[in-house]
């Protein structure tokens, strides 16, 4: 099944080009569960084959991720917060909870957004609390771009060096995720140490 999906993505990306990468990564970054691990490696393989440009692939994937994140961010900001303020108490979400979320993202939104872009599942969802909290738009955009760029670049190079070998791509993708989890934990620890010293 995975082999068929990979082949379909290679064909789709090959025919739609950079627009296809942008659209697929935009869907991946919103609420549509398309794993980026099966989007960017095939694009990297096409770079290896000389059919696409590495820089344009990474830019397309990164901007697609940002666009999908915008969808979640603005939907949560414009629609989600008013609904939660009005009806949240019916599902045990009080306005004080939203105030705490806003306060958290005002103080720690940058690190949360950046790390959230690197982690499975959280990657799709981190834009929602950021939107609910009304996180500064420029900061949200910057740290989303940084996190998405790092993730997209890694996956593209995985595909570039491993080609169509799905077993190796899956194996290395898992190892990369574990490595990013360790990296994120270290980054959070350093961040809190700096925060404690500053305060």
Architecture overview:
- There is one protein chain.
- With about 200 residues, this protein is mainly α.
- Helix 5 (about 95-115) runs parallel beside helix 8 and helix 8 (about 135-160) packs antiparallel against helix 9.
- It has helices at about 1-15, 20-30, 40-50, 55-85, 95-115, 120-125, 125-135, 135-160, 165-199.
- The mean pLDDT is about 80.
- It has nine helices and no strands.
- The N and C termini lie far apart (about 55 Å).
- The longest helix has about 35 residues, at about 55-85.
Largest sheet, strands/sense/barrel:
none
Q: Give Rg in angstroms.
A: 18 Å
Give the overall shape, derived from the CA principal axes. globular
- Beta-sheet strand percentage? under 5%
Low-confidence stretches: none
Helix run count: 9
Gap from first CA to last CA: 53 Å
Would you tell me the structural class of the helices and strands? mainly alpha
Average pLDDT reading:
79
Seen as an oligomer or otherwise, the chain set is single chain
Number of strands: 0
Helix proportion: over 70%
Q: Helices and strands, in N-to-C order?
A: HHHHHHHHH
